[in-house]
Amino acid sequence: MGSLTRLVDIVGRHVRDDGIHGTPIPGVSLIRSGTPTMPMPVVYEPTLCLVAQGRKRVMLGTTAYVYDPARYLIASVDLPVTGSVIEASASAPYLCLMLDLDMTELSELALRHPAPSENDGAPSAGLALNATTPELLDAAVRLAALLDRPRDIEALAPLVVREILYRLLTGPGNGIVRQMATADSRLNQIARAIAWLREHYSETCRIDEIADIAGMSRSTFHAHFKAVTSMSPLEFRSQLRLQEARRLMVAEAMDAAGAGYRVGYESPSQFSRDYARMFGMPPAKDAWRLRTTAGAPTG
């Protein structure tokens, strides 16, 4: 049995229902979908998404990232994206292993195993696709296989996770992971600003204030922020606001006016216009549609 076939077997046995499922292995989740899904907004945190079967498309701004068993996806910072499973069926469901990336462990490994040459310091996009190497796939299979041997998880899972992080650091296209592991990289400066925006998205703020948090001039911050997120800081904040407003209407049955006000909109009409532009229909109609349909996997 090949490594990919083994991964499909393990993940398929441990997730029988569609959705995202936590596991006894810290930081590891398994995702299943038996059908293609409609595009759904979600915030990706620093994560590795390694597909065992099927295909997923994620939109960051206007850029599409399609990943499958041949290509894994890395999210380096917190990013509001729209994702949809585009290849799945009842007989061959979409199956994915998702691993939260430990910044402390990554940084320690990067110090022990420095890159052969330095890059120019320019930040990479916040999402990246890279080829799934046999070594990375083999490590992922051994990590998933611990679900069949729960007594071994505490002793062995940290070792296999460390190997996976090492493979990401030393494999092809490792620049984004190297930048994540470097405390003073441009990527981490932008990550500080993103973390602040996620905490304060409903507040009025000036770009100069956010640039100060990142430790950059206004013009440098704007250029690097767009390179990482494919959005301006204000567009990024709007996506956070609209995603949270959507959650409030669907999960807490809040009306559109109340949700818009809660996330920082002073004008109900502006909220409705921005919402329809992002989600394709007015807030109340979209919320009703979502409440009457099942949720979709986001990994």
List its traits:
Tscrpt_reg_HTH_AraC_N, Arc Repressor Mutant, subunit A, alpha+beta, Jelly Rolls, single chain, globular, 299 residues, 10 strands, sequence-specific DNA binding, six-stranded antiparallel β-sheet
H/E element sequence: HEEEEEEEEEHEHHHHHHHHHH
**N- to C-terminal distance:** 26 Å
Structural class: alpha+beta
Q: What is the third-level CATH name, the topology of the largest domain?
A: Jelly Rolls
Strand order of the largest sheet: 1-2-9-4-7-10
CATH architecture of the largest domain: Sandwich
Q: Report the major sheet.
A: 6 strands, antiparallel
Helix content: 40-55%
Strand element count: 10
On the 0-100 scale, what is the average pLDDT? 91
* DSSP strand content: 15-25%
Structure description:
This protein is an alpha+beta fold. The chain folds into three domains: about 5-180, Jelly Rolls (Sandwich); about 185-230, Orthogonal Bundle (Arc Repressor Mutant, subunit A), CATH 1.10.10.60; about 235-290, Homeodomain-like (Arc Repressor Mutant, subunit A), CATH 1.10.10. About 45% of the residues lie in helices and about 20% in strands. The protein is built from twelve helices and ten strands. It has a six-stranded antiparallel β-sheet. The protein has a four-stranded antiparallel β-sheet with strand order 3-8-5-6. A hairpin with a 5-residue loop joins strand 1 (about 20) and strand 2 (about 30-35). The longest helix has 19 residues, at about 235-250. The two termini are about 25 Å apart. The mean pLDDT is about 90. This is Transcriptional regulator, AraC family. Pfam families: AraC_N, HTH_18. One of its GO terms (molecular function) is DNA-binding transcription factor activity.
